[in-house]
Amino acid sequence: MANAAVFTSNSLAIVSKIPGLIRGRTNISSRRRMGELAATEEAELRPNATVARDGSGDYETIGEAVKAVPERSKRRFFIYVKRGEYKENVVVGKDSWNLVMYGDGSEKTVVSGRLNYVDDGLGPFDSATLIAEGRGFVAMDMGFKNTAGPEKFQAAAVRSSSDRSIFYRCRFDAYQDTLYAHSNRQFYRDCAVTGTVDFIFGNAAAVFQNCRVEARQPMRGQYNTITAQSKSDPNQNTGFAVHRCSIGPRGNVTARTYFGRPWENYSTAVVMVSEIGGVIDPEGWSAWEPGSDAPDSIFYGEYKNNGPGSGLGGRVTWPGYRPAIEDDEAEGFSVEKFIQGSEWIEGLNIRYDPHI
Fold it and tell me: Taking Cα atoms as reference points, which of 225, 168, 167, 170 lies closest to residue 195?
């Protein structure tokens, strides 16, 4: 976990001019950076490689197709994965840039693994069914799951360390530590995430927009925490923004369920303009250990939410919690201000709302 903090600090740390708030990042156009997409690239999806379990494509496994991706390419490389369940662990290495992987739907093209802490001694960094490290990774219309089950503890479906990574119309299913938004800038649109303990976690600057976030019933004695954001340095421009999403249960959930808990002292997360189901505990947020207080240095906020779980009357009263952040604070977590989305969410007809 220490490596994760160092990596992110090197990638995203800046000097914050306004303590306690996250404003727009320094506006350096990523179009001119090494590894950015060629300006003449077309938006139409034309596969460079096709994966099919039945042998009708170029490859029968996703892993084989990923090996064909040119290193550090400035152009997108498209892999079409036909419908089916692919039981494999896929690693998109740090030199595989601008890979677009797309399927036939999040419940039709599914990548399934079961690496976990109990059986394999692996934490979420290495147990994820999909690991994306190369910059500019995009996944569309695919599902990713870890089937190890709650009794195996940490068992991730996806880890993304990819800067400017996009997940569009994807699904992430597991229990503890489902989605490791590890580092760098990330965008999730029209996705579904299910899990129990800390099931969206890490130290990325990540925006989740128009997604379904669904808590599952955990093991006896556990409670659900949706986010566990791990910002450890006040100069890091990292955090989780949940914007225009729905938060509710998957199936019958009787366990206490919270928006999140602070993995590190500067943990940052906001829930904005979202539909909050009654599954959320009236306190809203949890400390890392039950019965304790969160560090004063966290930034947790809510903004113009609705639904039966959105009431603020019973919320925690920590100094680092803002029950109703201001308009300009909310805009600081928008796709445009927080992750400069207009510079890189383009060319694939991916919808996004740049502002709150």
Answer: 225
Half-sphere exposure of 275 (CA within 13 A, CB side): 9
| Phi and psi, residue 337, nearest 5° | -75, -40
Tokens of 127: 């147990």
Give the integer Cα–Cα distance in Å for 59 and 56: 8
The residue type found at 125 is F
Amino acid identity of residue 244, one-letter, is R
* Residue 42 region by backbone torsions, left for phi larger than 0, else alpha for psi between -120 and 50, else beta: beta
Residues with catalytic function: 198
CB atoms within 10 A of CB 43: 10
Q: Residue 280 and residue 268: Cα distance in Å, rounded?
A: 19
Concatenated DSSP letters of 169-238: S-EEE-STT-EEE-SSEEEEES-EEEESEEEEEES-EEEEES-EEEE----TT--EEEEEE----TTB--
Q: How far apart are the first and last CA of the chain?
A: 32
The token duo for 62 is 């996703």
Please state, rounded to an integer, the average pLDDT across all residues of the chain. Answer: 91
Per the CB < 8 A criterion, the answer to whether 126 and 97 are in contact is no
Q: For residue 56, give every residue at least 6 positions away whose Cβ sits within 8 Å of its Cβ, in sequence order, or none.
A: 50, 82
Nearest-angstrom CA–CA distance, 274 and 310:
9
Q: Are 226 and 250 in contact (CB under 8 A)?
A: no
- Span 16-40, mean pLDDT? 37
Question: Which tokens go with 214?
Answer: 């669904």
pTM: 0.91
What is d(CA 63, CA 213) in angstroms, rounded to the nearest whole number? 28
Q: Does position 2 have pLDDT exceeding 80, yes or no?
A: no
